[in-house]
Amino acid sequence: MSRSRLNQVLNSVADAGRELLRRGPPAGRLRERSPGALCEALLSTRGEASGTALARDVADAYGAMSAAEKHAFFATLAADYGPGPAAIHAASDRYKQAPGCDTLTALTAAVEPPRQELFRRINMAPNGTATIVAMREDLLTLLPDDPSLKAVDVDLVHLLTSWFNRGFLHLEQIDWESPAALLQKIMAYEAVHPMAGWADLQRRLADDRRCFAFFHPALPDEPLIFVEVALVRGMASAVQPLISDPGEMLDPAKADTAIFYAINNCRVGLVGISFGNFLIKQVVVELAQELPGLKTFATLSPVPGFRAWLASLVEESEGALSDQEETAIDRLSESDWHTSADAEADVREPLTRLCARYLLEAKSRGRPRDPVARFHLRNGARLERLNWLGDVSEKGLSDSAGLLVNYVYDPKTIERNHESYVREGKIAASPEIKRLAQ
To answer: How far is residue 196 from each of residues 176, 178, 425, measured CA to CA in Å?
Structure first.
């Protein structure tokens, strides 16, 4: 059943439920209930129709809230819809006295916060899943200033991780014949290498390009994450030639390399719900089947934390930097350093060396400090090559000093690299990268 048809069914059930509630006793009528009262009613109702009606009302009420009201709503969920300590202690004592299925089930029920069940019931509403995702998106903006809401986010991540399990997702290729509304969303969600308009998008969907996205049945018209791929000969070292009009296009059958040059998460509310690793691996399989001539699958990735790390080195150096490295970092403040032959001669070697050190040695909680490196290395990719001035866009220069990285996805070693990384923190890297870091 399509999602639009399912929404029609849910709306008809909700309308029937509203009629039942309207005919009920005064205490059960909807009238002008507050969001809090609606939530209480939703948790206490047992009927399917009335529950769907109340879920729709809660979703509608949330959508009409101001930013301050949403903050108060989440604060109420954090304070009043958590698990009860007394019930947990009692259930824990019973389990200790008589370990078994029944006491474990009771303990599990006591530990689970009531707000999780509330979110499940809101999910019954038409477009309920979209509402839950939007709730988390709003919540993430509040967390930095109000850490007391963290428990609510933990519950949302727990539920969304289950609801957006890879088994529920389906892969679709997006091309120039895809619906215009979907193509507009691809342009809007592209954050790695923004598009100026339809001509840019058309180039990225040409015969020697591919675009794949994951979709969820509850959000059929919303791409969750998408990857853009260039079919080329040899491993690409710069992104601008891939996203501009290069003139004659390459026959895909003559390509020997697939370059993943942009991966975009589309929904902020799903940050931390990992399915990007499955996307790349599945696209590798799809492309290998479509084009047997492809021998190499690699990314052309930014190094978004590199400039910030350089700044921290300058502040904390205490002799950790050589004079040549300090000079190179200083020259980055010049607006035209990347177009000046003299500046490039001063900065290329030391910056490339520092970038290799950053990727291999800079750590956060025992893992690579760079978020893009963490993503690809955890997926089983190999850190293959650094590309000088691979991205000379304003963002590329400000974040990565123009450097781009090739991470290679070798089907023969992906799983071995992944296991070594997650178990031992071992980074798969080419001899060239290791030599630079030393």
So the answer is: 16, 19, 40
